Structures are given as structure tokens and as C-alpha cells.
Amino acid sequence: MASTILEMRDITKTFPGVKALSNVNLRVEEGEIHAIVGENGAGKSTLMKVLSGVYPSGTYDGKIIYRGQDCHFKGIHDSEHQGIVIIHQELALVPMLSIAENIFLGNEHARYGVIDWNANEARTRALLKKVGLNEDPKTLITNIGVGKQQLVEIAKALSKEVRLLILDEPTASLSEKDSQGLLDLLLEFKRQGITSILISHKLNEVSRVADHVTIIRDGRTIETLARQDVTEDRIITSMVGRSLDDRYPPREPKIGEIVFEVRNWSVYHPLHADRQVIKGIDLNVRKGEVVGIAGLMGAGRTEFAMSLFGRSYGRGITGEVVFRGRPIDVSTVGKAIEHGIAYVTEDRKTYGLNLIDHIKHNITLANLRGVSTHGVIDDLRELATANDYRGKTNIRASSVYQMTGNLSGGNQQKVVLSKWLFANPQVLILDEPTRGIDVGAKYEIYTIIARLAAEGRAVIVISSEMPELLGITDRIYVMNEGRIVGEMAAADASQEKIMRAIVRGEGKAA
Amino acid sequence: MSTESTPAPQSGVAESVPQVQRVAVSALVTNLREYGLVLALIAIMIFFQFTTNGTLFKPVNLSNLVQQNSFIIVMALGMLLVIVSGHIDLSVGSVAGFIGALAAMMMVIWPLGFLSNPLVVSLVCLVIGAAIGAAQGYWVAYHRIPSFIVTLAGMLIFRGMCQALLGGGSSVGPLPDGFKALSSGFVPDLIGSWTIVPPVVNAAGKTIVGSGLTLHMTTVVVGIIGVLAYIYFGLKARRTREAHGYQAEPFTLFTVKTLVISALILFLVYQFATYRGLPIVLVVMGLLIALFVFVTKRMTIGRRIYAMGGNAKAAQLSGINIERLTLFVFINMGVLSALGGLIIAARLGQAVPAAGLGSELDVIAAVFIGGASAMGGVGQVIGAVVGGFIMGVMNNGMSIMGVNVDWQQVVKGLVLLGAVVFDVYNKNKG
User: Fold this and answer.
1) Which helix (H) or strand (E) element contains residue A294?
2) N or C: which end of chain B has fewer CB atoms below 10 A?
3) Distance CA A168, CA A153 (A)
4) Kindly report the CA angle at B302 between B300 and B305, in degrees rounded to 5?
């Protein structure tokens, strides 16, 4: 029987006004892979920050026993010293430095401040081999993809003699193949005796590699399951506190005439003027219809949507946008909004929200006219509006005066959605509306999409999750390499059909 | 649709009680910064009142204080918007100097006929200020050249043009009295004065300055009307909020705040009334402050500037024309720099090559002391104004105390650093 490497007992952490964790218990065995799952905002990341000393000892209640000792970490250095290394969701690499420089940043092989580059590179090579990354240590971080960057982070952790590796949603931004590679690497580490804690939303990953799964909900431990007891349904039930028989809300589509049409839309790359990114796309959406755009990463879906929305991407844009039979001018974001188009961005933190302002101001930003007369904002009307949408989209926050930067991903997404709902669009383009948010919040967002369609609006959903598209749309376009390579009714579609369309499209392009 | 689709932690009644408390606490927390700043200003004023043996609050000194610092505060209003939108303007001191020189040349040297009328000259100068702002803002807004670089260039260009215009090192003056009134004039007493204690007349038959008590009644009336309006609108705003079922700030907090501010205004008005009344420049400044508070708090353009400073990309994708908005912010800064330049020239009675030299640093310091963030998106008009007054009172108080100018700089630097450190500390704690 393996010994316990880490035990967290009755951890309680309070923020002003919110109890983030209450009496959380976690026991991790030496040499296992322990998964922590829970909805966004359930407290997983807070728990890991307590463990790694980001929240220093004394700011929380409870006990941390690591390798048999009572630990009081004052900062991240203390925990790293003990071999606990955390890899955050947002990577902490310096883009314009090389792989070797990043791995040994702050920890260089140096004598009297003079760096021994040969030693650094030799060690980097050894570490990169361990994580299976075949790159020159001198390569700049900015020149390698996210998947490889993730591996560099892990190599960096290995350079610190790690005993307990914590990965916070490591596969959130990785492709399927890179994710598999990463999970294999975790299993390899397990053979070498390194313990890992894996925080993830992806239940299939968890059931593949984890020896134990601890489920956290609303700041409390719900249960810890052993490998043999883990089923996807069991986890979902514990996570949301109810069974999710239907992952998608039922709806009865009432589809009308064509309201929105794009004809022969072409876009060139903003920097490489001769590279055509979007190649003559034709697409239409009917009243009350939810249309999906499927495709792999890099298919050009986001570029297409952003170029439509006020030419926010690319140059040399040609083509026609038709709304209710008449061509419209969408050359600026303002004009696009005036014509009733809204685009909910894929990256809510960078493009969607003002994170240093509160919910109320974010919700009204795209339609300030709706709460003002002659340029003067009516504070009460704005407050009423914000509260109204907070209720409609079920944003969980202490009040509309909470900073959006402090909300969980799902609630941030609801704020962005509210902003665009208040702009009262007739055509909504939603780009990866459920990326990085938990099962419960996903269902709420599907419900909102269904309601919008029922109100007679035209909805376009871009998503990389095929089951999601199959579950909520009426018709699916398949995009690959800047072209539409397939179109099918959702009722006839399947993941295989979509993939086949992509593969066949690739054949055509070549 | 399934009724279970929304997990419901929002059981209304159970949550509403802590929510009321939370509103009260958050009102206090969000305003703590502003109150703290006002309290700091009051503390600094009381400190200097003692160390200068009561000179600071003497009516004549208060008038001086306003006249010496008004240009900093006027420019700080523009700088606040620049900094909130995520930029900086280093050229304001040079632009002010250049505009002062231009105004002097137009009024005194160049034969412009009726166009050399102070009012016409002032208007022309404000328009030229707008053009200067537009010229700098254009590069920042439409070519994405960092504002630090563009305005550093502007700082050199306009200081050079100021000196060239004045023909090397010479000064140009004297400026007409009508123009000087902008800085040194007082609002005329339309109602007449009220002598409570007649001034002492000495043996030679002349009155002794500062003896007796005569009140400038227009000032008194304006002051009282102002305070009543302040209380009335404060109460009205509370009532509308409550009528719509929203929580206003706690009544005690509101009462204390209103009383303190009213008492402060009445005290200052009384001091001005015993001297020559309200300085014209104070009225100009007061109206501008009110305008900018309104623009930043209540108008859509103000909101858009904050959104742009907070996240420019998100603002752009929400339909905000960030290029045009940036241009506007710089045009506004140009106009206020020009006004600052006119105020400086009017106070000195002449244009000098060094007018406004280094004042950009005081202006920027005022905005940062007032709690603005160098990253953009955060900052309040009232904060910048109070920050400006803190700088002004320290200048004035230390000068009266006879502190060496060199050491005055050191103290001001320490205060700036201290204010920002306090801010950052507060933010990390919260």
C-alpha cells in the first residue's frame, strides 16, 4: 500500500464577502495521478494556490501535511523548495527568450553571475528528451506552439527536482494529439515515481489516467472516487449536484426565411498580403435557426467571423453581406452593430471584457445609447438593465458592482453574452461560446442560445466540440483551410460525417 | 424547457440581508480612496496652518494659492483623461509656454487691430491648442506611435517654438489689464459689500489694511446658493434611488459627508468674502471641474474612455471608435494646455520663455496622487483635483515656511511615491 504524500485537512479560505473553500479535505497517495474536478469557480484553483503558498500560511485555516510534516508555506518558493511545482493554466514563459533561458530563468548555471551557456543547454537537452520535445534549446518560445510550450513548462518543473507536479487544466488549449501526448507523459512520470495532481474539465482524460478523482463543488469536497468506481455519469452528477440526463436543452426549431447571407467572402492575411485566409465563402442563416460552423483549429472560422464583424481581421476583404434581402455595410464594428449583428468573441479576457471594471459597465458597453439620452447616461436605467440581464443569464456574483476580472470563466462568458443580448442583435455569431467553462454553465448557455432562436433571431455557433454542434444546431457548415467543405442538416450529421467532409476537403485543396 | 436547468442559489430573502451590508461596505470601500485623499489634503492644510503661524488660511493667501495652482489643476483635468485612456502627455508645459508667448505676441507686438482684443486672442489660442492636440493625437491614434514618444517630441518642439517666438531670451509684456483679469481678477460685487466691523482709520486718515470686517456679499450669496444646491441634489439623487428600490449609501455616511463638505465650502467662501471675493480663475476652474466630473461619470463618451483604457481591444469590438476617441482625448488636452498657458501669462502679466517649464511633471504627479493607474482605465476627476491641491498647498506652505526650493522638490517627490505606494498596498490588501 502506497504511503500518503500529501494531506490537506479542513482547508477553509475566505475572501472578503465570499467563502471560497470550506473544510476541504484532500489526500494524495505517493506516486499516483490524482485528478481534481469541479465546475469553474468551485474552488479547485484556490485550493492549489493554498497548497503552493500563493496564499501564504496564516491566510487560511486548516492543515497541510506533506511527506509527514506539517507545512507552513510562506510563498511559492517554500513549496518549490519542497518539490511541489504548479503549472498554471496561463503559461508563465517569456516569449522572446529561448527554451533554455526560460527553463533556467532565475535558476541559471552560473558562476559569479556569469552564465555557463553550455551547461544550461546540455541540461536543457536532457530535460527536453525526458518530456519528448524535439526542439533546439535556442529556439525562442514565441516560435513554438502552445502544446510545445506546455512541455517546456513541464521540463522546467523537472529541472527543479519535482516530487509533486500540479497541472491546472493543462490540455485546455491543446489539440487532441498534443493532449494525448501530455497524458502519456504523465503516465510515464508515474512510472518514475512522480506524483501528479491533474485539474481538468475533460472527463475522458480524467477517467483515462487518474487513480483517484476528488470532486469539489461550491468550495466543498463532495467525494473521492477510486479508479474502478469512476464513471462519467457519476462524476457529472457529483459535479453539478444533479443528474444531467440531457446535456442539451430540448428545443423545437421554428425556422423562417433567410435573414442573413454572406456571398463570396474572401480575406487576406493582415501581414502576408498574398496569403488568402478565407476563400470565397457562401453561407446563409434563416430566422430562428441555429447554424454551426465546424472545423479543426486553424480552419479560419474565427478569422472569417472577425472579418465579417467590422473588418476586425485581415485585409483585402471582398464579398457581400446581405441582411433581409438588402446588402449592408459592415465595414466598421459600429456599422455592423447598427445593422443588428453581434459577435461574441472566442477569447473573452482579451477581446470581450474590461476586466478592471464591474459587471454593470461591461453589460451596457456595446449599447450605451440604450441607457442614455443625448450622451448622458441614466444611472438607474443602467442599473436596472444590468440587474435584468444578470437575472436572465443567471450571472452568479455578489452584485452587478463586482469586477468582471474576479468572476469565474462561465460567469464571465455570461457577462459577455449579456452585453450582446442588450445590443439586441438580429444575427448573433458566437465563437466557441463554451470554451473553458464547466458543464452546468454550458447548459445555461445552450438554454440562452435556444431562447434566442425561439425569439426569431439568427444564430451562428462556431465550435470545435462536435457533440456540442450536433446537440444544439439545426444545420452545420464544415470549414477547412478557409473554405466551406460541407453542409449538412444537424439531424443527418454525425462526428464521422463532419470529419469525412474535412478530410475530403483537404484532398480537394491539395 | 426543464425547470431544473438553472441551479438556484439565489433564494431571494436569505441573501438580501447580507447583501444590504455588503452594499454598505462596498460603498465605503470604493469611496475610501477618495475620502482618504480629501482627509490627507485637510491634514496637510492644518499642518501648514500651524507651521506657517496661521498664514495659510489667510484670505489673501488662499486667493494666491488658487491663482498660483489653477493652471496645474486645469491641465490635470485633461491629463486625467489622457492617463485613463492609457496614454501620457509630456508636452503640456511646453504647449502652455508656447500659447502664452503666442497670446502675448498677438496682444502686444503684432499689429492685428481689433483682433488683438484679449477675448479674441484667447479664443484663437484655444483653437490653436486644439490643433496642437490634434496634431499629436493623430500620430498616437492613427499610427499607433507611443504617446510617450510623440509628446516627448512635442515637448521639445513647442518649448523651442516658445523661445523662438519671444526672440531668444526676452520676455514680452506688459499684457493688457483685461487679459490679466483672467488670473488676478475677482468676480465683481453686484450686490454690494456689507461692513460688519468698520475698518480702523489711523491718524493720517487712511484705513489700515486687514482691519475691520467687510463681507463681499455676492460671494456669500453664491456660496450659500451653491451649498444649498449641493444638499438639494444630493438628497434628490438619494430619493430617486430609493424610489426605484435601490440601496443608497448609508444615511449616516451621507449626512456626515454632506455636512463636512458644506462646512468646508462655507468656510472657504467666508474667507474669500472677507477679502476681495471669488477669484475669476477659481470660477473658471470650478465650472471646468464640474463639467469634467459630469463627462466622466455620466456621459457615454466618458464611459467609453474608461473602457478604452481598461481594454482597448474589447472596446473596439464593442463598436467604439478608439482612434477617434484617442484623438478627442488629445484635442481636449491641447485646449486645456492652451488655457493653462493663458492663465500663466495672465498671472505673470507677461510672456516669458520659461513659462510652464516643468509643469507637465506637476500635472502628471497630481493625476497619479489622485489615484489614477499608469496602466489606464482607472482614475477620478476629483482625485486629480485634490491631488493638484495637495501639490499646491505643499508648494505654498513650504514657500511661506521658507523651505529651500530644492528640498521642496524632494518632499513633493516623496509624497508622490508615498501616495502611489499607499494605493498599491491598498489594492493588494483588498
Assistant:
1) strand A290-294
2) C
3) 12
4) 110
Taking the C-alpha atoms of residue A38 and residue B303, their distance in angstroms, rounded to an integer, is 37
Across A357-384, average pLDDT: 93
Q: How far is CA A488 from CA A258, A428, A475, in A?
A: 16, 20, 6
Say if residues A65 and A7 touch (Cβ distance below 8 Å).
Answer: yes
What was the pLDDT predicted at B369?
A: 93
Q: Which residues of B touch A440 (CB under 8 A)?
A: 7
The mean per-residue pLDDT over the stretch A27-40 comes to 87
CB-based contact A375 B310, cutoff 8 Å:
no
Q: What are phi and psi of B51, to 5 degrees?
A: -70, -20
CATH level 2 (architecture), domain B34-185+279-429? Orthogonal Bundle (1.10)
> Residue B407: CB partners within 8 Å, gap ≥ 6?
B398
A79-107 confidence digits (pLDDT tens): 888 889 888 776 778 888 899 988 888 77
Do residues A48 and A200 lie in contact, with contact meaning Cβ atoms separated by under 8 Å? no
A354:B310 CB<8 A: yes
If one looks up domain A4-240 in CATH, what number appears? Answer: 3.40.50.300
**Domain limits, chain B:** 34-185+279-429, 187-278
Cα–Cα distance measured from residue A218 to residue A444, given in angstroms and rounded to the nearest whole number: 17
The grid coordinates listed for B208 are: 489700515
Give yes or no for a cis peptide into A270 (omega within 30° of 0): no
Task: Give CA–CA dist A404/A359, Å, rounded.
Answer: 6
Residue in chain B closest to A345 (alpha carbons) equals: B317
**Does the pLDDT value for residue B430 go beyond 60?**
no
Using a CB-CB cut-off of 8 Å, the residues of chain A touching B318 are 333, 365-366, 419
By three-state DSSP, how is residue A473 classified?
Answer: coil
Asked if A288 and A453 touch (Cβ cutoff 8 Å), the reply is yes
Chain B positions in Cβ-Cβ contact with residue A366 (cut-off 8 Å): 318-319
Place of cell 463532495: A222
A444 touches chain B (CB under 8 A): yes
Q: Which residue, B352, B338, B355, is CA-closest to B174?
A: B352
| Contact present, A346 and A302 (Cβ < 8 Å) | yes
Per-residue pLDDT for A244 more than 60?
A: no
Q: List residues bridging with A219 in a β-sheet.
A: none
pTM score, whole prediction: 0.79
Among A120-134, A417-431, B77-91, where is mean pLDDT lowest?
A120-134
Q: Taking all residues of chain A, what is their mean pLDDT, rounded to a whole number?
A: 87
* Any A CB within 8 A of B406 CB: no
A43: cell is 474552488
Distance between CA A179 and CA A204 in Å, rounded? 11
Give the number of C-alpha atoms closer than 13 A to the C-alpha of residue A371, restricted to the C-beta side.
Answer: 28
Chain B hits for A376, Cβ within 8 Å: 298-300
Contact call for B7 and A241, based on CB within 8 A: yes
Residue with cell 479543426: A296
Does residue B8 carry a pLDDT above 60? no
Cell numbers standing for residue B279:
477669484
CA distance B296 to B80: 10
Task: Indicate whether this complex's ipTM tops 0.85.
Answer: no
Interface of B with A in 379-398 (CB under 8 A): none
Q: Where in chain A is the domain with CATH 3.40.50.300?
A: 4-240, 287-304+331-509
For residue B60 the three cell numbers come to: 489673501
- Integer Cα distance of A209 and A186 in angstroms: 8
Residues of A in contact with B22 (CB under 8 A): 17, 398-399
CATH code matching the domain that covers A287-304+331-509, chosen among 3.40.50.300, 3.30.465.10, 2.40.40.10, 3.40.718.10: 3.40.50.300
Q: Where are the alpha helices (DSSP H) in A344-485?
A: 359-364, 379-392, 409-422, 439-454, 466-472
Highest mean pLDDT among A423-432, A500-509, B273-282: A423-432
Contacting residues for A443 by C-beta, under 8 A, at least 6 apart: A244, A247, A248, A249, B5
